[in-house]
Write the structure tokens for this entry.
Amino acid sequence: MSRKSVLVVDDDAGVRKSFQLAFEGQPYTVHDAESGEAGLARLASQRYDLIFLDLKMPGLNGVETLRAIREQGIDVPIYVVTAFYREFLSELEGAANDGLAFDVLEKPMGGDQLVSITHQILGSSGL
């Protein structure tokens, strides 16, 4: 059985690196994308078991990317990660009201929190 895969979509290279570091030594394969568009391109060629999605990005923002993911019929857990929750509250409420499944994590968060959430969703074996 193959390792479970996590996709991190964030325009900040430092944030993407922090995810990579948090998951070092963990039983998951972690890929990243620097934009909503790049994330959608990755999703077109590979299946992921969990997605961490930044909310405030140039181009497609997190809510627009979330909508595009769900429109493609991709039904995996998605965590919208943001320090701008209030700024996007109406868009997030609209997505929830449209029946789009997602959870929200507020930045900053620690690597232990990310790993713990991933273990809860995917299991600690990663298989």
